[in-house]
Specification:
alpha+beta, 127 residues, Alpha-Beta Plaits
């Protein structure tokens, strides 16, 4: 099984932003959500207190690279965005009890393994 949890902030906190920018950012976020597979159980794009947040979470039987691929593409076209993607794939033996984390900031995506959270047996309980 594959599962993912995504949070991104898409707006640019530039004082020179115009209403057209806000509309463009919203349209880009909506297009991003449309690219995601229908397996995504939760997909939300919302303006909150002047900030545009995109949240998605879902699961499928096998790895779905469309989420990470779309996030990398979005980061290259909107370098001011930031956020996190947590992924777990039970078919990835090296990460059998770890989340793979992709962080995005300043147009760059960096991948790491989360050492605090675990998808199967919580590490806190193992201590």
């Amino acid at each position: 099984m594959y599962q993912f949890h995504l949070w991104l902030r898409l707006d640019n906190q530039d004082d020179a932003a115009t209403p057209n920018d806000f509309e463009d950012w919203t349209n880009t976020g909506e297009a991003f959500l449309q690219k995601m597979s229908s397996e995504a159980a939760i997909k939300q794009l919302r303006w909150t207190n002047g900030q545009l947040h995109l949240v998605a979470s879902g699961a499928s039987n096998h790895l779905d690279t469309s989420v990470a691929d779309s996030m990398r593409e979005l980061a290259s076209t909107m370098p001011w965005i930031f956020g996190l993607l947590y992924e777990w794939d039970d078919e990835h033996e090296a990460l059998e009890n770890s989340f793979l984390v992709t962080s995005v900031a300043r147009g760059r995506c960096e991948v790491s393994v989360d050492k605090l959270l675990s998808p199967i047996v919580p590490r806190v309980m193992d201590s």
